[in-house]
Design brief:
- This protein is α/β, with parallel strands linked by helices and 238 residues long.
- It has two domains: 52 residues, no CATH class; 160 residues, Aconitase, domain 4 (Alpha-Beta Barrel).
- It has six helices and eleven strands.
- It has a seven-stranded mixed barrel with strand order 5-6-7-8-11-10-9. It has a three-stranded mixed beta sheet with strand order 1-2-3, with no helix packed on it.
- Strand 4 and strand 5 form a beta hairpin.
- Helix 2 crosses helix 3 and helix 4 packs across helix 5.
Length: 238
């Protein structure tokens, strides 16, 4: 592994030398700017995400396990939809309410007193993100620190909103994982191999390729991708 990859940053990119971090090279590539930078690696970006994304596109972190039919009301209840994600303070606040609508049996997705989750990867069953259509659902998860969801299947609109917002990667598993995994286990998602490694269980699982949605999320969402590829004009700096 020759470099670290730093995820897109919505508002600003604050990178610092990483040479002091054992085993981690100091040179990094920012997906959003494609420029070479020196990145701090304790978090992926200044939003405080806790997974580690490394050269070859690999995310490693703890998992939060759900099951079937997790709907958008459980992901972010309607009472919080008045928050405006384009405002940094409200984006952060929106993330603090992610998955607050879950039944108690799942445990706490965000620890008391914290505004970010320690689980950058969610494992789920069928029909994740079902229910009413709202872009706030993937945005809330992304704002909370989620980098990827691995589900057996998705509600179509939620999957599309992941691509539109560029907040997280919606992976599909080949087999049902939510019955085999437990919250708190450590896993790695290997983008190039379309593979999931559960380090706690010492087992490897196949994932379905992201396909065309991958580059869109890499770019930071559909509009960023359209500008990057020349489909629409780039924003003019003032």
């Amino acid at each position: 592994m020759s470099a670290m990859l730093c995820l897109r940053e919505l508002h600003r990119h604050e990178c610092k030398p990483a040479a002091s971090c054992a085993g981690v090279p100091s040179s990094s590539i920012c997906l959003h700017s494609r420029s070479r930078v020196e990145c701090k690696v304790k978090t992926l970006n200044s939003r405080g995400k806790t997974g580690i994304l490394i050269m070859g596109k690999v995310i490693r972190g703890l998992i939060f396990v759900l099951d079937d039919n997790i709907d958008t009301d459980q992901i972010i209840p309607a009472e919080y939809l008045t928050l405006v994600p384009s405002k940094p303070d409200e984006y952060e606040k929106l993330g603090s309410y992610a998955l607050i609508g879950l039944p108690d049996r799942y445990g706490k997705f965000i620890d008391p007193g914290e505004i970010k989750t320690r689980y950058p990867i969610i494992i789920a069953g069928e029909n994740f993100g079902c229910g009413s259509s709202r872009e706030h659902a993937p945005i809330a998860l992304g704002a909370a620190g989620v980098e990827a969801v691995i589900a057996l299947s998705y509600a179509r609109i939620f999957f599309r909103n992941c691509s539109a917002t560029g907040e997280l990667y919606p992976w599909e598993s080949v087999e049902r994982l939510c019955d085999q995994f437990e919250t708190g286990q450590e896993v790695t998602i290997d983008f190039e191999q379309n593979r999931l490694v559960n380090h706690t269980l010492d087992k490897t699982y196949d994932l379905k390729p992201l396909g065309e949605v991958g580059p869109v999320i890499d770019a930071g969402g559909i509009f960023a991708y359209a500008r990057q590829t020349g489909m629409i004009a780039a924003k003019q700096s003032r």
